[in-house]
Amino acid sequence: MDKHVVIIGSGLGGLTCGYILAKNGYRVSILEKNPQIGGCLQTFVRHGVKYETGMHYIGSMDEGQILHRFFHYLSLLKDMKLHSLDTKAYDWVSIAGERFAFAGEKEDYVHALAQHFPGEKDNIRRYYEVVKDVANNSPLYSFRYTGALTMLNPMYVKQSASRFLQEITSNALLRQVLAANLPLYAGVAGKTPLYIHALIRHFYHQSAYRIVGGSDAIAGSLASSIRAMGGAIYPRAEVTDILCNGKATGVRLKNGEELHGDYFISNIHPQRTLELLHTPLIRKSYRERILGLGNTVSSFTVYIQFRKDRVPYFNSNLYHYNTPEVWNCAHYTEGEWPKNFMYMHLCSSLGQRFADAGIVFAYMDFKDVAHWRGTSVGRRGRDYESFKRQKAERLLEELVKQMPDVHNNIERYYTSTPLTYLDYTGTEEGSMYGIQRDCTEPMQTVISQRTKITNLFQVGQNINSHGILGVMIGAIITSGEFLGVHTIMEQINNIYRNG
Fold first, then answer.
1. Integer angstrom CA distances of residue 4 from 21, 22, 249, 258, 331
2. Cα separation of 177 and 91, whole Å?
3. DSSP H/E element including 362
4. Cβ atoms of 474 and 460 closer than 8 Å
5. 201-220 tens-digit pLDDT
6. What is the DSSP string of 319-351?
7. What are phi and psi of 143, to 5 degrees?
8. Three-class SS of residue 75?
9. What is the pLDDT of residues 473-486, one digit of tens each?
10. What distance in Å separates the CA atoms of residue 219 and residue 34, rounded to the nearest whole number?
11. What's the confidence (pLDDT) of residue 179?
């Protein structure tokens, strides 16, 4: 087979598709506009310290669990070092003056929360079981694929996560605690479907890990494997047009060069894909639908370098809320920001006692930085630098209240805004997770891997779901257009069984 597949974008979805297709005999070329590949797997180094930009911790990596199987299939395990988070409290939730632990195993999870809500033990257990049921009823998440890609229970798609929690318990505080990891998907009350919440929760219930040394190891490993199988990856190769003549025939790069192929996969935001297409094959109604879809909120991040051997390594993550209502943190006045934040340490080596670096981020609306849209990195002006400094100091002030060991132990820090995410990931208005899923319009807000152009497909966080697991499964669905999803799942299971 010598069919040529051109992939636009080297994020996790594009790299995973590239690996699967190269493994099955396709000639693969991956085009990346930035110098560094990886999308949200990108890292950066300042003063000898490496920082994550998107993939902060992963789940379901114990032997036999779903991500472990996918990593095995993608030949990633040989290049990965993992550090397990605290199994009794991989996440802490700080809200209403109390702290609540999320444990992994069911009985540990129930016990930890029941200490705060003794009358809710049965409801907490029921919540855990429903979350597990959602995952088990999702074909590709449970390895029970039978030909249907949709969730088996429509209730999980058409019911909002917030409504589900209202049905689980009448205890208002417990509902907020159970929803407190929503920065992992930028949930919106009444819109975010139950399955988004449940699949992410189940992902970490099974196990939770940090990638030692940074998630760029995933991108580097996939790229190395793709090249070893005859594929090519081109950084600094920005696509400006997808060329069409009845079907897609090639792409034009910013430098004027053209690259032709048999099939094309876009690993960029669907709205960015439309900007590359100038063909009547894409109907006006479709363009209007995609361009009219809302996107998840963005964030402001502070990357912290600690003074050497001063801050003990924190083997959990902290979600803090300055408001009793966790669902409304994306809406704030100037004086209210930040309503919430997520804080974690980075793992630079196995068994470390002290943290070299940490990350804290809070929701930020793109309108806060819209004034500087169109400017380039490093050239946004003094007002922008002043804005970032002010926001960083305010966020760090809130962090110190919750984590006093940070006080006077910060060597230096760096920041990113929604403009940074826009520049480096190309997602609309720097949104963290792309298009906002809406249970009231499920068919409108889930983007198909297929397009109206028969040989052009899509992959990434807007296809299937976001996060490392959602994107990998989306890549299986997209690659299934070439090979059949059943074939890929059989390959994954056979490789896993045969070691």
1. 10, 10, 11, 14, 46
2. 11
3. strand 357-364
4. yes
5. 999 999 999 999 999 999 99
6. EEESSS-GGGTTS--TTT--SEEEEEE---STT
7. 60, 30
8. coil
9. 999 999 999 999 99
10. 14
11. 97
Residues 6 or more apart whose CB falls under 8 angstroms from that of 333 comprise none
Q: What is the residue whose two structure tokens read 């004086």?
A: 335
- Cross-strand bridge partners of residue 321: 340
Q: Measure Cα distances from 179 to 182, 198, 292, 319, 395 in Å.
A: 6, 10, 28, 11, 22
CA–CA distance, 444 with 267 (Å, rounded to integer)? 20
pLDDT tops 80 at residue 142 = no
Cβ–Cβ under 8 Å, residues 313 and 354: yes
DSSP E strand stretches across 258-308: 258-260, 263-266, 298-306
The three-state secondary structure class of 379 is coil
Q: What confidence tens digit (pLDDT) does each residue in 451-465 have?
A: 999 999 999 999 878
Contact 126, 164 (CB under 8 A): no
DSSP for 113-141? Answer: HHTT-GGGHHHHHHHHHHHHHHHHTSHHH
Which pLDDT value is given to residue 250?
97
Q: Are 60 and 209 in contact (CB under 8 A)?
A: no
Q: Which of 244, 248, 278 is nearest to 261 (CA)?
A: 248
Q: How far apart are CA 36 and CA 48, in angstroms?
A: 18
DSSP 8-state class, residue 22: H
What is the Cα 456 distance to its own chain's centre?
Answer: 23
Distance CA 201, CA 104 (A): 10
The whole-number average pLDDT for the span 226-250 is 97
- Residues 6 or more apart whose CB falls under 8 angstroms from that of 24 comprise 1, 482, 483
Nearest 5 degrees, angle CA 274-CA 300-CA 85?
Answer: 105
For tokens 């309503």, name the residue.
Answer: 339
For residue 58, what are the contacts with CB-CB under 8 A and spacing of at least 6? 67, 208, 209, 210, 211, 468
Residue 147 has pLDDT above 80, yes or no: no
- Specify whether the CB–CB gap between 235 and 9 falls below 8 A: no
pTM of the model: 0.94
Q: Which residues contact 128 (CB under 8 A, 6 or more apart)?
A: 106, 109, 110, 205
Reading the block at residue 166, the tokens are 């209202």
d(CA 141, CA 225): 25
Over the Cα atoms of the chain, what is R_g?
22
**Cα-to-chain-centroid distance, residue 174:** 26
Per-residue exposure over 393-424, b if at least 16 CB sit within 10 Å of its own CB, e if not:
eebbebbeebbeebeebbeebbbbbbbbbbeb
